[in-house]
Amino acid sequence: MKEAKGSLLYLDGVSVAFDGFKAINNLSMVLKPGEMRAIIGPNGAGKTTMMDIITGKTRPDSGYVIFDGEIDLTQHDETDIAAMGVGRKFQKPTVFESHTVWDNLELALNRKRGVFSTLFYKTTGKDREQIDEILETIRLIARRDELAANLSHGQKQWLEIGMLLAQEPKLMLVDEPVAGMTDSETDETAKLLREIAKTRSVVVVEHDMGFVRNLDVKVTVLAEGSVLAEGSLDHVSANEKVIENYLGR
Amino acid sequence: MITPFIIKALDKKASWVVAILVAIAIFVPIANLALPRDSFFHIPNYAISLMGKYTCYALLALALDLVWGYCGILSLGHGAFFALGGYAMGMYLMRQIGTRGVYGDPVLPDFMVFLNWKELPWFWHGFDMFWFAAIMILFVPGLLAFVFGWFAFRSRVTGVYLSIITQAMTYALLLAFFRNEMGFGGNNGLTDFKDILGFDIQADTTRAALFAASCIALAISFLICSGIVRSKFGKVLVAVRDAESRSRFFGYRVENVKLFVFVVSAMMAGVAGALYVPQVGIINPGEFAPANSIEVVVWTAVGGRGTLVGPIIGAVLVNVGKTFFTAAFPEFWLFALGALFVGVTLFLPKGIVGSVSGLYGRATKPRDEHPNLHSAAKEAAAE
């Protein structure tokens, strides 16, 4: 795939159908290294399915998904793709509830993940430093030894973002990061994501328009499994098809 | 590499458990052999063989807990690994009989002479040597677990479906071992053992030594389990138990994690079976019965899964209860067992150890409930 050269993520003509229903229909999208992209679209537009395809959970019926200009992600499973440097935050915050905040981050750290390397693993000073740094960023220092199950919803969202940071991915896929957050938490999250996007590519799926405006990045509008419009938020909000499909409901 | 593993394994609580097990391994045989019969502290022979049995059961429950309590794999077929280890030991013991059998054949065990077999089947070769049998005790259950786990975990079979196929596995082995043509003594199994490593298997000293060996095996396995669950790998195990697909997205090979722990657990179950057989004097296909495997789940649940001490306590308590009940009210035992399991599931979901340590606040915070495990366990009870 020559066209994929120089891009971090390259989707071309991706389609997938579930029982005849086309969840993704000829979807194409290019993401440059270091770019942050917001994806919006009505319910059922295929946003989460797109993430499933990128992370290897769902295999597309056709089309190319090229990572880092050369790797065909459709040939790999979740574990491989995660190891290549694709991190994902789920819509519903998913952390390891019976582990402490600290252990959650330790598990996410970008270290060898084999059976024997974890069995004989010894936590190093560097690990502690890195975890403390992340705890600082996600403001959970005070709760480091608490079980993740006892965190509030917003804190779980942040912990999961922290775990993604620990994973040190090249590409972060973030599904509805501010769902269930207060306004001030939402602002903080936008700040945090902009900070993160300085060092890696981020794809954010979000419903909250204020939040997307706050991110101030290129927006892709999905509808019925394909791209409806692309550009700045103002540009796409002016698009008639978008208004009809989504904004003007 | 190994040292940090051992240091982690021997935290304060684990050291206590190991110390107690070693003390039991030393003092119980002394109380049995050296103290005069009328002494208050004398332990009679029948008690030694009962305690030996309980210790093997405890080891089996510990093995199950490693996969169920920590990795969420509810195996309803762990009795199969126990029985395979037992058969490997039984084959060694059969070969030790030599000419003392009823038919006096120097090589062939009695049942083969009876079936008119002329020579030893290939898979019986080598079992006259203890070291070979010892390797097989680990290897055969480990291999079965590896092959089974390879296919099951790779195909992402989980939850109740996995439990059902483990159950099917042990049932299939039950049927296979019942057949005379299999070459394992069919219905009657292997019995009438004479000696082990040159010692008379009926002698009081041998029985006491076997009991001590069981305690030591339990202590070593406890150490291994403790090392596993306290390592980073142990954290991965719990992560897989609680959020399997999430751990995949963090780059963990869930199938390898499960496979490793399943094989280790099967080997421990094999050792338990191998120590059990010389103490009870017989191994037959009945040990493969699905009900046996389900009982192990009950012991583990009663004691407290997801704790390492729990299954040991559960196995001993339930079996003491069983010994008492089956003597006092034989017809009520199964009802008592069923009631116990339902009671524990409803009122002590974390088992005895989990609930007690929760009361004293020694556990950091109550662990999250795992509805899937519960429903699977209930189904096991309904079986």
UniProtKB/TrEMBL annotation, chain A:
InterPro entries: AAA+_ATPase, ABC_AA/LPS_Transport, ABC_transporter-like_ATP-bd, ABC_transptr_urea_ATP-bd_UrtD, BCA_ABC_TP_C, P-loop_NTPase. Keywords: ATP-binding, Nucleotide-binding, Transport. PROSITE patterns: ABC_TRANSPORTER_2. The keyword Ribonucleoprotein does not apply. GO terms for cellular component: plasma membrane. Gene3D superfamilies: P-loop containing nucleotide triphosphate hydrolases. Pfam families: ABC_tran, BCA_ABC_TP_C. SMART domains: AAA. Residues 9-249 form the ABC transporter domain. One of its GO terms (molecular function) is ATP binding. This is Urea ABC transporter ATP-binding protein UrtD. It comes from Flavimaribacter sediminis. The gene is urtD.
From TrEMBL, chain B:
The keyword Transmembrane applies. One of its GO terms (cellular component) is plasma membrane. CDD domains: TM_PBP1_LivM_like. Coiled coil: none annotated. It is a multi-pass membrane protein. InterPro entries: ABC_transp_permease, ABC_transptr_urea_perm_UrtC, LivM-like. Keywords: Cell membrane, Membrane, Transmembrane, Transmembrane helix. One of its GO terms (molecular function) is branched-chain amino acid transmembrane transporter activity. It is found in: Cell membrane. Pfam families: BPD_transp_2. The chain crosses the membrane at residues 14-35, 56-84, 129-153, 160-178, 208-229, 257-277, 297-320, 332-352. The keyword Membrane applies. It comes from the Bacteria. PANTHER family: HIGH-AFFINITY BRANCHED-CHAIN AMINO ACID TRANSPORT SYSTEM PERMEASE (PTHR30482), SLR1201 PROTEIN (PTHR30482:SF4). This is Urea ABC transporter permease subunit UrtC.
